[in-house]
Amino acid sequence: MDKAKPTGTPDGTVPDATGDSHGTTAEPGGSATAPDASTSPGADAATPPRPVGLTKADPAAEPLETAAPTVPGQAEEAAVPPATEPPATVPAPRAGGAPDAVVPAQQQAPAERPRPLHAPDPYSTPPYGEPGPWAPAPPVQRPVPTPAHGTYLPPGTPAHGTPVPPVPEAGPAQGGEWGRYDPWAAPGALVAESGGGPGERRRERRAGRGRLVGAALVLALVAGAVGGYVGMRLERHGGLGTVELEQTSGQAGERAPDSVAGIAARTLPGVVTLHVSGGDGGALGTGFVLDGRGHILTNQHVVESASDGGSIRVTFNGGETARARLVGGDPGYDLAVVKVSGVSGLTPLPLGDSDDVRVGDPVVAIGAPFDLANTVTSGIISAKERPITAGGEKGDGTDISYVDALQTDAPINPGNSGGPLVDERARVIGINSAIHAAGGPARQDDSAGSVGLGFAIPVNQAKRVAEELINHGRATHPVIGVTLDMGYEGEGAKVGGEAAGGGPAVTPGGPADRTDIAAGDVITEVDGVPVASGEELIIKIRSHRPGDRLALTVERDGESRRVTLELGSSDPS
């Protein structure tokens, strides 16, 4: 009689005490069966099978209790009967006269239940759909994307198809045994919750891509900076090397004598700058050398403060300085002469003829505008015989200058006063004296700057006055011997009713008295040139020397007549 075999034997048979097998078979489920003790090998094949669930061969025996459903993990324990009492078996039908197979009563299926159509799952996984009665339903799983073939994986990542050893669990996973179930994972592989899984690999790949992108950005920034610097060098310098500019060599040639440079080169050595200080304050101006004895011509308003014991300092073109003394001056002409002593190598400037000047002739003005010594400007003669008056700060009229001036557009500014105005042959034709200011022409120290309207004393008048100042210390004024009504608003210059001291308006025995000019007469022309006011008549007279003859047009009681007179002379008071 064979013994019952325990379940789980690998080859499906159980050796007896002698080590031989006696034809016992194992069901696919893993439970071994043996022939019943009361059944012989030669039993009739037609014997009907016994009902499932009986523990004895006797049909009248009491039925056994049906085995309760088991869950995974308990199947092995339930399949092994106690060692002291083998499970009761019933013979199974034989096919072709084979011995009946004995099936344990606990796992014998009912007669009406069909056998499964497929082999049992070796992994004990419940079939999809409704789970079996022996296991709980697995939780819903989502497919985890895996890298495609050809995707670069970090070192240490298993290749496709390589079995991955299971990751030991750190503790009980939520959801029971199916909490870590992954139907798409490789056999035996578990998804690690921290590190090693697809999520961690994706994070590593993203970190790697981030590092590559960062490195690419840094490289792009460095390349852009280098390219910008190279481009800047190429644009500005035409290359990356040191730039060396070409320069023509040769000696500086002489300038044309009639060019501004040529005129300045010949004139500057004879021009000086004057710094004057005195009781009335200081002044700044320009002058030019008249002769080799040290006489310098300038404006009276430049050296006026030195007449009260002030000092005059002269600076020459080469930077040498010397003290000067006032020789004489005349406010009516706005001219003065100073002299330096103990100075050699002076360069006197040649004097031209102001009567020969034409409008449009080029001129050059030299001076020290705003104390900028040896400044050269150029322009043209804008007009001739422009009657101007300047000064009058004292209020008694003794400081008013009357000038039949040359007008120029050469820039003249405060500090140019007394400087020379020269023609294209470097000859002095005028002495810069005034510029246009609000309300009319004014001396240069009374205005802020040039507006292109400068006025110069004609050199012909300046020459006569300078000679008189050097030779006599004073200058004479040509006169006609009348007192003018300066308040007259009509056209022309009207002879007043009486003199300032209460005397007659016409000087007895003077030039006007000898030509029968009386008080109330109006002088309208001088040498055929109309005069509009008393100031213009004075300017026209002072542009001549004493002894010169003038032709005057005189109106009396609406009748005009023409008279000729010889200019007299008077010393300045």
N-to-C span: 178 Å
User: Helical residue percent?
Assistant: 10-25%
Low-confidence stretches: 1-103, 189-195
Count of individual beta strands: 24
Strand order of the largest sheet: 5-6-7-10-9-8
Mean pLDDT: 75
Largest sheet: 6 strands, antiparallel, barrel
Strand content: 15-25%
Taking all Cα atoms into account, the compactness measure Rg is 68 Å
Note the overall shape.
Answer: elongated
Describe what you observe in this structure.
The chain is α+β, with helices and mostly antiparallel strands and 573 residues long. It has helices at residues 75-79, 198-237, 260-267, 300-303, 459-472, 511-514, 534-542, and strands at 25-26, 32-33, 89-91, 102-104, 271-278, 281-289, 295-298, 311-315, 321-330, 335-340, 362-367, 375-390, 401-408, 420-422, 428-437, 440-443, 454-458, 477-479, 493-494, 522-526, 529-530, 549-556, 559-566, 568-570. Strands 5-6-7-10-9-8 form a six-stranded antiparallel barrel. A six-stranded antiparallel β-barrel has the order 11-12-13-17-15-14. Strands 19, 20, 21, 22 and 23 form a five-stranded antiparallel beta sheet that branches. β11 and β12 form a beta hairpin.
